[in-house]
Write a structure and sequence with these properties.
By secondary structure, this protein is an alpha/beta fold. It is 43% helix and 15% strand.
Length: 275
Amino acid sequence: MTLKGKYALVTGGSRGIGRGIVLKLAQSGAKVAVHYYQKEDQAKATLEKLRAAGTDGFLVQADVCKPEEIRRMFAHVKSEFGALDIFVNNARPEVPTFYDGPMTISLDMFDFAMDSQAKAFLVAVREALPMMRDGGRIIAMTYAPGGRFGSWQPWVAMGAAKAALEVLCRYFAVALAPRQITVNAVSPGWTDDSVFNTLPQAAQSMIRNWHEAGWTPMRRLGTPADLGNAVALLCSSEANWITGQILDVDGGAALMDAHLPLEIQQIPPKQGQAA
């Protein structure tokens, strides 16, 4: 699988999952524009790793909550690359900017979440298309459980925004199919070196232990490299018949039934553990 000769843009590519995606695309031969908002030092470190992988790219700064800055970002990409083959919509605002429950969240916080996801994606895809070559790839990073469930109450704004993002993927998949451009979403499970590591240490330990106990059947958290592998797979020519889908990349966590304790589900013990 090679992406040599391809041009990519990854928003939120300076760190965490975004960095994992950038590096996998680079290792596959693509040249990558690395978008960042505030963490310029981390973006520069990602660019160095990208170049160490044997390809090239550049940094582009923008606030994706503002349509005019999205347009500026794509103008920069056009001036550097001249064309685009892959667009990965990964950027997300920091948790405190949208984290509140449905009964108390302000409209400004709700709008901020929606602007950063659904609206940003709508504007970005429209800006990408004039320079995207036929057979291109568009991928949105989502968090599918946030759009399906209501139990994580302070996630209401981002859950609604991600659900809207997933719907847009389906609409764009149909609209762009005549050009053989595929549009898909990737839904990560809990992932190390990501927003997970910004949680209080006690919360990190609880989540890690919960999933290693069997709520993730593969008994570990994901890594940015795991997500990069999934994105690169969808960007490959072999994936040209996959469009409008949400791919859970979560070690099987989405398969688990929250209605039953693990003991009743008879989940096999971790390798090396006694039954």
